[in-house]
Amino acid sequence: MRALLIRHGESSGQEPEAALTPRGLRQGDELAAALRGESIGRVLSSPYRRARQTAEFVAAGTEPHIDDRLREWELPWVPDTDWPSALRPILAGRVPLAPDVEPIAEARARGLAVLHEALSDESGLPVLVTHGKLLSLVLSRIACSDPYEVFIGLRNPHVFEVAGSDGQLQVRSVWHPGV
User: Which domains does the chain have, with CATH numbers?
Assistant: First the structure.
């Protein structure tokens, strides 16, 4: 069983309708070329525009399936001067979140649920396109690592392969621009 998890290309912002930048669009072409030898099956994407655009490069002419569970884990606004270091205590669970913010465990669980469903799909290599914070929660659970360290190591776009069986998953970085 294997699946690819992809962080979207460079975007113009963080809001749901932020598009890929011209550089992000070029990255999409690079990403498609890097995955050309794979037998891509179903492509699932966050509903956010930047992820949908990235997924379209991977889907190669087919329509990506939108899965709301791949949306970004939304946090309260963090000033640019504190970014990304302000994420460390949040991702470690040391900062109480407002009642209207999705709990870390719920965000991680929805991301893992999509991944586990995708891993059971036998119609080709499933691809999931999502966002940095959600991706760091999912990958850190699989790799038993610090989600903040995963987050700061992410690139745009960034491809990870998740593989395994019988509940024993492993993750590895397989591509990002410049590799």
Answer: 2-175 (3.40.50.1240)
